[in-house]
Structures are given as C-alpha cells and as structure tokens.
Amino acid sequence: MRAVIRAGDQPGRIGFDDVDEPVPAPDEAVIAVRAFSVNRGELSLLEIRPDGWRPGQDVAGEIVVAAADGSGPPVGARVVARADQAGWAERVAVPTDRIAVLPDAVSFEQAATLPIAGLTALRSLRMGGPLLGNRVMVTGAGGGVGRFAVELAVDAGARVTAVGHPADELRALGAAEVVPEVEAVEAGLALVVDAVGGPVLTASVKRCRPGGTVVLVGAVTQEPATLRLWDFGGHGVSITSFFSAMTGARDDEDLGTLVGLIAEGRLHPHISHLADWSELAETLDLLRNRKLGGGKAVLTIS
C-alpha cells in the first residue's frame, strides 16, 4: 500500500512509498483512510524524526478488518480515529478504544478535523469545571483548537470571549465578545484556554477570578511568560498544561460526543484547506508558513 514517510531531502520533508500492510493487534481494527488532517505538532515531528518514520494521527475512513477480539465497529463501518502515527496512508491499524462510528450526516472530511484539535478543545474545557453562566476566554481563537473551544464552550452555556480573528466568524460561532488582545478583556474569568503562551499566558492569569483556571494547550510564541506571586492575587488561580493522553478519558467516547454534536448542527468544523493527499507537501508548506487562515487542513485519499 502507499504511505507517507519522512524524507528529509524532499519538499515538505515527506515522500510517498510502498509499505507493508498493517498487521493489527487483537484489539485493533484496520481502517481504509479516506481523509486525514494535519497538525502543527506533526511539523515539529517531521523535523526531528528519522527518515522512514511515518506520520499521521487524525484519520477518518471505513473499517476493512474488524478487531479480532470482537471489540469496536464491524467491517464497513464509517469511522473517525486517533492513531499514534502512520495515519497518512491508505490503511492504518488503530486500537478500537480510539475509534468512533460516524453518523450518516457527518462526512469523512469533517470527522478528520476532530481527533487532535477537537479532543484538545473538549478536554481542556472540562478542566474548568461546569461552564454554565461562567466567563470563558479562548486565545488563538481563530485556529483549529480555538474554534472548537469557542463553540463547545458556548454550547455548554458559557459567556465566551474570543481573542483572535476573523471577528465575524468567531461571533458566528457564538462568542459574546471578540477582541484582538488579552489586555482588552476585563477580569473575572473562570477559565482560559490559551493556545499562545508567553506574555498572553501572563495576562490571562491576571484576568482570572478567584479559583480560576488557565489551561495551556499551545505556545506559538517564543517569548517567555513572566509570572510573580502577586500576579495570582492570592486567589489560588491554577495553571495546567494540556496533554490528551493524561486526561483519563476514552477517545472513542469523546469522539462519539463530538461527531454527535456535528450531526445535530451544534458543532461546525472549519476546513480552511481541502486537497488530495498528492498535494501534501504543498499543504505542509502552507501550514508551516501560517498561510492557511485558521481552521484545519484536510487531505483526501481517493
């Protein structure tokens, strides 16, 4: 089968090669990949991994080999999954507890946006406790994680301040307030989902209410955060970094929640770039140079 491999001397540091078919463990199913999305973290991995390494985590497609232990969806089921790696390929083996069945109303392209960005948004919001009636701020709100976080927080009953652009699109997702920078936000936030870090993280802490929470999901800036004891105001504001694997939640259940929200019209994946996977190198360059305009880049496999 055809698969993407790391090739340091090729455009985008990737190449296409013929590789062996996946051999699934008893609790794994094999998915014929129809669409996948790319994440900034994979750009970093392509810089440091050896040639021949196979990237890819966000996949959607059809089950072609069901798990031998009887778990998971049957052959023919339309699914979305989070793979550890090797998902940019015609087929990939994934543990069944990371696979969710797609409702008919959800396309492969929509589903492929979810595993990393959608799970990060959903789980980081949970770290803030009940959101109904509380104020939530999302920084980097125009990106893949940010857009999901804004809409999910609004759906949970929060009053959301989005820091980012484009303002009209963020308001359409339900943000009550859209501002260009954190300094324009009033204090009293219950939760901040911060995808920027550095000085933005510092400013976010200062705007939390007593007992508030800041969840750091990314750090696009190279500038350091500078926090002093009195920045916390003596109110026990907590800062936590987000790692999906450490939440204890099951991917199949949370992905099922997300695709259900899409089917109900309550969550709207934003695909800013859609192309055939033969255009992956060009897509990675656009992502690397921040020319995708927010949202997710999705590649399809015929």
Describe the structure.
With 302 residues, the protein is of the alpha/beta class. 25% of the residues lie in helices and 28% in strands. The protein has eight helices and 15 strands. The chain has helices spanning 40-48, 108-112, 114-126, 144-155, 167-172, 199-206, 251-263, 280-288, and strands at 2-6, 14-18, 28-38, 58-65, 78-82, 91-95, 99-101, 135-139, 159-163, 177-179, 189-194, 208-216, 238-241, 271-276, 296-300. The strands form three sheets. Strands 3, 4, 5, 6, 7, 14 and 15 form a seven-stranded mixed β-sheet that branches.
The share of residues in extended strands comes to: 25-35%
**Contiguous uncertain segments of 5+ residues:** none
Class inferred from helices and paired strands: alpha/beta
Total beta strands: 15
The profile of the biggest β sheet is: 7 strands, mixed
Roughly how many Å apart are the termini?
A: 13 Å
Name the helix and strand elements from N-terminus to C-terminus, one letter apiece: EEEHEEEEHHEHEHEEHEEHEHE
CATH homologous superfamily placement of the largest domain: Medium-chain alcohol dehydrogenases, catalytic domain
Tell me roughly what share of residues is in helical segments.
10-25%
**Mean pLDDT across every amino acid position:** 92
Number of structural domains:
2
Number of helices: 8
CATH architecture of the largest domain: Alpha-Beta Complex
Q: What is the class of the largest domain in the CATH system?
A: Alpha Beta
The CATH topology of the largest domain comes to Quinone Oxidoreductase, Chain A, domain 1
Radius of gyration: 19 Å
- Overall shape: it is globular
